[in-house]
TrEMBL record:
<dbReference type="InterPro" id="IPR050250">
    <property type="entry name" value="Macrolide_Exporter_MacB"/>
</dbReference>
<dbReference type="Pfam" id="PF02687">
    <property type="entry name" value="FtsX"/>
</dbReference>
<comment type="similarity">
    <text>Belongs to the ABC-4 integral membrane protein family.</text>
</comment>
<feature type="transmembrane region" description="Helical">
    <location>
        <begin position="299"/>
        <end position="326"/>
    </location>
</feature>
<keyword id="KW-0472">Membrane</keyword>
<feature type="transmembrane region" description="Helical">
    <location>
        <begin position="347"/>
        <end position="374"/>
    </location>
</feature>
<feature type="domain" description="ABC3 transporter permease C-terminal">
    <location>
        <begin position="306"/>
        <end position="429"/>
    </location>
</feature>
<protein>
    <submittedName>
        <fullName>ABC transporter permease</fullName>
    </submittedName>
</protein>
<feature type="domain" description="MacB-like periplasmic core">
    <location>
        <begin position="21"/>
        <end position="234"/>
    </location>
</feature>
<dbReference type="Pfam" id="PF12704">
    <property type="entry name" value="MacB_PCD"/>
</dbReference>
<dbReference type="InterPro" id="IPR025857">
    <property type="entry name" value="MacB_PCD"/>
</dbReference>
<feature type="transmembrane region" description="Helical">
    <location>
        <begin position="21"/>
        <end position="42"/>
    </location>
</feature>
<keyword id="KW-1003">Cell membrane</keyword>
<dbReference type="InterPro" id="IPR003838">
    <property type="entry name" value="ABC3_permease_C"/>
</dbReference>
<feature type="transmembrane region" description="Helical">
    <location>
        <begin position="394"/>
        <end position="416"/>
    </location>
</feature>
<keyword id="KW-1133">Transmembrane helix</keyword>
<keyword id="KW-0812">Transmembrane</keyword>
Length: 436
């Protein structure tokens, strides 16, 4: 029997007992459907995290603070710490809620950072704390101020990212502030002028006018109450905020950003962080900041996938039962095929192909319906509870994952069909022909 005939025969034989085969396919469908949904959940969330990573910072930039006794690995220890006059208050890079104080970074520290092997560029982070933002004499709204790093991108509802190379004062306002500032929509805010106020140490308030060039979307990492000024506006606000402060005192920064090779491997980044630690600094990458998010998500998806695999293993017993019954019912037929010259290998292949075909049908139906249901759920959630997280597709699919799921199910089906196929291959033709 030729290979083509073997495949055709396996497909037709699979439906000799339609009810039994359909029940087996249904069992496989449950496992494949579950695996598709859980895999899509992991793909969707991780894809959203990857898409929004650049809104936190560029992948080749590391936030650096000076290590103090109050921190261990960049995280506050909570133990009593002796007062240090060089310490400044700062939000620590790392998991949400990690806040404390760090030792101020000085111009000499910036030179030290620049001399470390692997550091391409160093830039002090200027922290600006606005009093309010206002448009056209309207209500004054409390707002924070973020910072833009070269290579960083922002999810925008309208407009463009503020140009750090421009001398004009530009700002991107959060989408949540559009209505509050009196704009009809995000597009209407573009090109408008807003007033941002800061106070110096003597509590004198200074106001600066800036042009709105972009409206930033809110992401799962936050940022919904922070404006994003360009470098010129940041420098102006920082200078006004420190009016009257001696120049040497102004050059005390809570943190700095260092740039490294964007193609650096994980091992090279680890070495750079170790060198920073030896020099008395703590470096944190975007991956470090998001590590907790991705670890939790991956763990949840792994557990859910475990349930799907259990369902598939249960379905494999259905395949064994179906094919064992098929071998028993076709004993005389197997004997006749072997008497006519079909080898044991061909008989084994016939039943193995039958098992794989059943696995393919169950997985294809499960994956297909899983994608339809998953897409419908994702769309409903995006238009409802997750409407404030634009760009989030909670359940997403990619071709590689879909093909992998089908191949895994077919592999399980093949293994499950091994025992019945081996029994059929070992059948003695004479005894099989005598079988009643």
């Amino acid at each position: 029997m030729k290979t083509g005939d073997l495949i055709t025969s396996a497909v037709s034989n699979a439906f000799r007992s339609k009810t039994r085969t359909l029940l087996t396919i249904l069992a496989i469908f449950v496992g494949a459907f579950t695996l598709t949904i859980t895999s899509g959940l992991g793909t969707g969330i991780n894809r959203y995290i990857d898409d929004t990573v650049s809104s936190i910072g560029a992948e080749d930039v590391m936030a650096v603070t000076k290590t103090s006794d109050s921190t261990a690995g960049g995280i506050p220890t909570g133990d009593p710490v002796e007062y240090d006059p060089d310490a400044v208050a700062s939000a620590q890079p790392g998991p949400p809620g990690a806040a404390g104080s760090v030792i101020a970074i000085t111009p000499d520290d910036l030179k030290t950072l620049a001399s470390i092997d692997g550091v391409l560029r160093v830039e002090a982070t200027k922290t600006v704390t606005p009093d309010f933002i206002q448009h056209d004499g309207g209500t004054r709204w409390v707002i924070g101020a973020g910072s833009l790093i070269a290579g960083q991108t922002v999810e925008l509802a309208a407009g463009t990212i503020p140009d750090s190379a421009s001398d004009e004062y530009q700002v991107a306002v959060p989408l949540t502030f559009v209505d509050a500032l009196g704009f009809d929509d995000a597009d209407a805010a573009i090109g408008q002028t807003v007033t941002i106020a800061v106070s110096d140490p003597t509590r004198v308030q200074h106001e600066v006018e800036a042009t709105v060039v972009g409206v930033a979307e809110e992401t799962f990492t936050g940022g919904g109450a922070s404006a994003l000024p360009n470098q010129a506006l940041t420098d102006e606000l920082f200078g006004l905020q420190n009016s009257g402060v001696p120049a040497d005192e102004q050059e005390r920064f809570a943190s700095a950003s260092i740039w490294f090779d964007p193609h650096a491997t994980a091992e090279q980044i680890d070495v750079l962080q170790a060198d920073l630690e030896d020099a008395g600094f703590t470096g944190t990458t975007v991956a470090d900041q998001l590590g907790a998010f991705t670890a939790v998500i991956d763990a949840i998806v792994l557990v859910l996938n475990g349930f799907a695999v259990i369902a598939l293993l249960a379905a494999s017993f259905g395949i064994v039962n179906t094919l064992l019954m098929s071998v028993q019912e076709r004993t005389r037929e197997i004997g006749l095929m072997k008497a006519m010259g079909m080898g044991s290998g061909r008989v084994f292949s016939l039943f193995s192909l039958e098992a794989m075909f059943i696995g393919f049908l169950g997985s294809a139906v499960g994956v297909g319906i899983g994608m339809l249901v998953g897409s419908a759920i994702s769309t409903a959630l995006a238009d409802g509870p997750f409407a404030d997280l634009p760009g989030l597709s909670l359940i997403a699919f990619d071709a590689a994952s879909i093909v992998t799921i089908i191949l895994i199910v077919m592999g399980i089906a093949f293994v499950a069909g091994t025992l019945p196929a081996a029994r059929g291959a070992k059948a003695d033709p004479v005894d099989s022909l005598r079988y009643e």
